[in-house]
Hints:
Layout: H1 8-74, H2 80-100, H3 105-135, H4 137-145, H5 148-294, H6 299-348, H7 353-399, H8 401-406, H9 408-485
Amino acid sequence: MKSTTWTIPQQIAASLCLPLIVLILLGVVSVHNAANLLEISEELKQDYRVLSELDELHGHFLDAETRQRGFVITGDAAFLEPYELALHALDGDYEELRKLTRSNRNAQDRLDRIRPLMRDKREEMRLTIEQRRREGAEAAARMVADGRGQRIMDEIRAITAELRAEETRLLAAREAQASESERRLLATLTAGSVFTILVVAGIGFVIIRGINRRINTATRRIESSATELQAAATQQAQGSKEQATTSSEVSTTMKELLSTSHQIAESTQRVTQIAAETASAARAGDDTVRRAREGIVAVERQVEKIVMHMIDFGKKSQQIGGILQIINELAEQTNILAINATIEAAGAGDAGRRFGVVADEIRKLADRVGGSTKEIRTLIEEISAAANTTVIATETGSKAVDASARQFSEVAASFLQISELVSSTAEASREIELSTKQQATAVEQVNAALLDVARTARETEASSSVTLKTSSELAALSKDLVRLIQRPERA
C-alpha cells in the first residue's frame, strides 16, 4: 500500500481544522447562552418596568387623593388641576401595566380586579368634591369620614401588593437565571479557550517537530548534492580547459593543411593547363600527318616542322615531369600531415572523432594523388619514348622519302597513341584538380568545425566556472540552513 506524505501547507491546514471546529462549537454554545441571557435581560427589564408602573400607579392614586382632601379642607380650586392630571395619569398607568403583563395570566386577573375599584375610587372622590362645592366642608368631611374611600384604597393597595410580590418573585428567579447563564457562558468560554489553546499548542508542536525533521533531511540532501555538484563542476572545468587547448592546437594544424591543399590545387591547375597545351600540340601533329597524306611532295617541308614540334613536345614533357615531382612531394607532405592530424584527433577523444575521420579521408586522397602522379609519370615516359621514335622516324624520312612513305602508317599510329595518352594525361590532371578542390573544401569544413569545437569548449569552460561558483554558493547556503534548523547540542 502506497503511503501518503502530506505537504507542509496541507499539515498546517489540517492542524487548523480541529481548533476551527472547537471554535465553531464554542461560538454556537456562546451565541445560544448569550441569546438566552439577552432574553432574560429583556424579561428583567420588563419586570422592573412593571414594578415602576405599580409605583407610579400607587403614587398617582396618593396624589389624586391628596389633592382631593386638600380641596375638601380648603375649598381652593387650585387643587383640582393636579387632581385631574393625576386621574388622567392613572388610566395610562393601568393600560401600560396590562400591556407589560399580557403574558402573565395572574397579573391580568389582578388588574381586572383593580379596574372596578379604580372606577369606584374615582366616583367616590368626584362625589366628595361635588359635596364640598354644594354643601360645604362639613358635609364633605362627613362623606370622607364614612371610610368608603379608605376601604377602596386598601383593596387597591392589597391587589397592587400581590402584583408587586409576584413580580418581585419573578424578578428574583430571572436574576438567578441570568446569573446562571452568565456563569455558564463564562465557563464555556474559559474551557473552550483553554482547550483550543492546548490543542493548537499540541498540534503546533507536532507539526513544527515534523517540519523541522523533514527540512533537516532535505538540507542534508542538498548539502550532499551540492558537494557532488561542486566536484563534478571542478572536473568539468579542468576537462573544458584541456579540450580548449587541444582544439587550438588542432586548429593550427588544420590551417597548415589548408595552406598545403591550396598549393596542391594551384600546381594541379598548372598541370591541367600544360596537359591542355600538350593535347593542342598533339592535334597539330595529327593535322600534319593528315596534310602529309595529301602529298608526299610536302613531306620534306613538314619533316622540319614535325621535328620542331617534337622538340617542343619533349620540353613540355619534361616540364610535366617536374610538376609531377612537385605534386608527388606535396602528396607526401599531405600524407604526413594527415597522419599527424589522425594522431592529434585520437588524443582529443570524442571531440576529435569526426576530425579523425576527415583526416583519414585526406590521407586516402593524398595516396590517390601519389598514385595518379606515378601513372602520369609512366604516361609521360611513354610519350617521350614515342616522341623519340617519331624524331628518329622523321630524320630517316628526310633521308629517304620512300622509307617515310612506307612508315607513314606507323607515324599515324604513333600520333594516335600520343593523342590518346595526352587525353589520358588531361583527364588525370582534371581528376587531380577536382580532388584537390574537394580536399581544400573538406579541410575548410574541418577547420570551421574545429573553430566551433573551440568556441563550444570556451563556452563550456565559462559555463563550468559559473556552475562551480553556483555549486559553491549552494553548498554554503545548505550549511547555513542546517545551522539555522538544527538545535545546538548540549554539552
